[in-house]
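help with these tokens:
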Amino acid sequence: MLQKAIMKTLNTIILSGSVRKGRQTHKVSVELNKRLKAAGYSNTNLLDIAAYNFPVAEERVGKLDSPPTAIDEVQAFLNDADAMIFVSPEYHGSYSGALKNFLDYFSKEFFRKPIAVASVSTGRFGGINASTEMQHLVLSLGAYAMPQKLIVPAIHNSIDEAGNVKDEFLDANFNKFISEFTWFAEAITDKKKKKD
């Protein structure tokens, strides 16, 4: 009974970290959103950084003389989140600069929150370097990095333009990732609620 109650109240943000034209990474964010909702986590939201087009961060929220449009809205989304998933392509052995710039506007919004990472690549290794770098980033934000990652290789071949996952191994990995993420997020969120 307790698990069902937590499931209904777990507020999750999927942060889609690619802004390039013709981006493929966003398909993974959409798929994660769809699968979490199908698993009963209806309070899951997709936050697409491409929709905000924030300029290069000069300062954090609260210290900006002229904050970008909608930054208060984004801050509210992040503050309300119990857990997050960062999704990024691998560029030059790391996560996207757009994702890092977006995150640099914020700080306390991530503190002690469970955060998982998913990385995407057109190559065979699925952005393994980006996933490791993102986990380091999560720890630097003062958050809890989920050990298991979602690695999506050969994105052009594994998810079609309609969003269908064509690769059976990837399909199974999506399911494993969702299962691990929900357990991890619920365990930490439940513990925090008991302490408060």
